[in-house]
Each structure stands twice: as structure tokens, then as C-alpha cells.
């Protein structure tokens, strides 16, 4: 559905002809003009649906997935867009764009297709980059959801404050319904915008508050106002994602007992703490592309403590957010018994240089009896995963982070190599069992 068209090629060539300094000056006008042009061409389709925008640093994709399941379970016709993929009612297909939030014309075309299919609700993952490029303009949002805010995309936005303000824009333009994480340190910046209805969620506070949280090998359980949820999802961070989704359901008149089956029926979320195998040793695939999310994943898998935690990781986005790299190394050393550094999405940067920057983070924790962690560098991602699986023994956990459900690896020259961490794991396990 989202193939490069003639207009994409023309716009790309025009941008190449314009000096960068000139384009940057006119960029806001250029992006806004395209956004409204797309909305006009496709007939402002969002005006006839309820569009739910989900923004934040972590948990957007999972929250979009959960909201869609809750609404579908209640009999509503739903469309959804995010890094996990696209769906219009029962039809689903992967996101191969290397772009969580599609470009303006693609986005408006999707909305029109959703409307033609009879969808009444659209759940949309809204990124700071998408807002910066005005992709949200021409879309009428009925509900804005704030998951959390952490340091991310600083090089692109120029500062953390600019990054936060980009996300705030969604709430400024959404007058009807706001759903906010009450426990997040930045919530006051998002709660200052007026809305007809606001629901705050959290573990420490909020209107939709979880208690009696129990994490285990089978998933995480929690209670809200006497309704107990027993999910197959893992980690406290998924309690927050569930709370956000349940709050959206409450906005649209659904009660907790009615939403409970939808949450409990979910076996896994592709590429998000996805257990490809549980026995004799676990193999988990997760997107974790920020220091906070990486630590959350490692912490969740460390309780109860496995025999060994074997970690395969790289660093997303060659050429950007370089500050993350030593942080990844520091966190991996803190939690992992064995570390394999590997290629992720180098783009035009030297992959080995990226991994050496991660390696530099190993020295950021006090030296223990173990000195440096047990680690090695294997650039070939398939070989790195193979080594981790071959090293694993009964009771170990192998965690592979960075790609999640992504369908390609971005390398030099704008090339993309088709890829799936989960599929590679299955192939390697099948080959080993023969």
C-alpha cells in the first residue's frame, strides 16, 4: 500500500536541488503545505472518525496495540498505525517504511482507506519527528495519550526541551480527551493543556491506578478498583502500557470488567518482550532502543534470576543519538552475564566504531571481581544470535534487543537488508534441533 510513488520521487529530486540552508528556512512552510494538501486531496478523512494519538518516548507501539485490541473486543471497527505495523479491521501488514509515522500523503491515504472500510476509530503512534515535520496537521485528533518522556532524539531536535515541546503539540491541538501518565516527571508539561475530559493513570497516583502488582514467569498481574488483571505480558512497564490503554477505553465508555478479556487474551506483542522460546532456555526479542527501556527489559528478565542473562545488543541509528552508546554498555555490564555486541542499524557509519563506543561504557561502573564483563564483538547479527543460542544452557535467558519487530537492517548507501530477529531465532533453533 505504501510504495514510493511519482510524487515522492519528484519531491525528493526538488529537495536535492535546493541548498540545505534555504530548505531549512522554508521547511516548516513546506511540511505544513504538504500536510494540508494531503488532507485536501483525500477529503479530510479523520473528521469522520475518532483518531487517538499516542505519544511518548517508550511504550507507544504497545499502547497502540492494546488500545486497538480493547476497542475491537467491544465490537468497534478499528484501524491502527505504528512501528508494529498497519491494520484496517482484520487486514494487517508490516511497517517496512523505517518510519513509525508515515509521510503526509501516505498517512492521509491510509485514513481514507480506513474510513472507506467503515472504521470508526483510528489509533495512531505519533512521533516527535512526525510532529516536527507537520505530519499531524490536517488530522482531527479526538484523544491524545502521553506514555512517558525520557532523553531521546536530542541531536535531531537540538535539546530535550524542544523534543518535549514537539510532543506537547499533540495535546495543544486535541481539545476533547487527554490520557496522561501521572507518575512521569514531565506530566505537568502535558497536563497544562485544556481538554473536555482528562484521565491520569499510574501506579503511584492517578485516576486509573494499579495496585497489588505481581510479576512472574507467566506474566504480570495487577488490580484496578477490585478488577484483577492476569496478563501474559512481562515487566512493570507493561502495567503502565495497560493502564494507558484501559484509560482510553474508559474515555469511550468501557468499564474495567468489559476490557479485562481483551487484555488477558493477548499472548504476546511482536518484538516487545516477545518470548520466541521459553524452555529449556528462554529467547526473548525486544525493541529496547533507549537506555531506560534497555534497563527496564533487563530488570524484568532478572526477576526471578535466570541461570545466566546472555545479551545481544547494538546501537540503533548510525549517525545519531551517539550519547546512548556508552550508556548501553554501562547498563549491559550491570545486568548481563554474557554480552555479544553486534550490528543493528549502522546506516553510513562504521559499524565497528559504533560497537566500540558501546564498549567504552563498560568502564563506567566500578570494577568488581569480574573486572570487564564476558563479552565479544560479532558484527554479523545472525552469527551473533547464533553464538548466543549455542552458548545458552538450561535455565538461561537470551535477550536480543534493538530491532524488535522491524523488518530490515539499514546499511550504507540507503540499502535495507530484509530482517527479522524472531524469524532468525526460529530458524537457528530449528536447525539445532535437527
UniProtKB/TrEMBL annotation:
Protein name (record): UDP-N-acetylmuramyl-tripeptide synthetase
Residue ranges occupied by any Mur ligase C-terminal domain in the UniProt entry: 271-404
Ranges where the Mur ligase central domain occurs: 54-248
Transmembrane stretches, start-end: 21-44
Listed GO biological process terms: cell division; cell wall organization; peptidoglycan biosynthetic process; regulation of cell shape
Compartments, record wording: Cytoplasm
Pfam family membership, one: Mur_ligase_C
Pathway info: Cell wall biogenesis; peptidoglycan biosynthesis
One Gene Ontology molecular-function label: tetrahydrofolylpolyglutamate synthase activity
InterPro entries xrefs: Folylpolyglutamate_synth_CS, Mur-like_cat_sf, Mur_ligase_C, Mur_ligase_C_dom_sf, Mur_ligase_cen, UDP-N-AcMur-Glu-dNH2Pim_ligase
GO CC annotations, alphabetized: cytoplasm
Species assigned in the record: Candidatus Yanofskybacteria bacterium RIFCSPHIGHO2_01_FULL_44_22
Family: Belongs to the MurCDEF family. MurE subfamily.
Record's keyword terms, sorted: ATP-binding, Cell cycle, Cell division, Cell shape, Cell wall biogenesis/degradation, Cytoplasm, Ligase, Membrane, Nucleotide-binding, Peptidoglycan synthesis, Transmembrane, Transmembrane helix
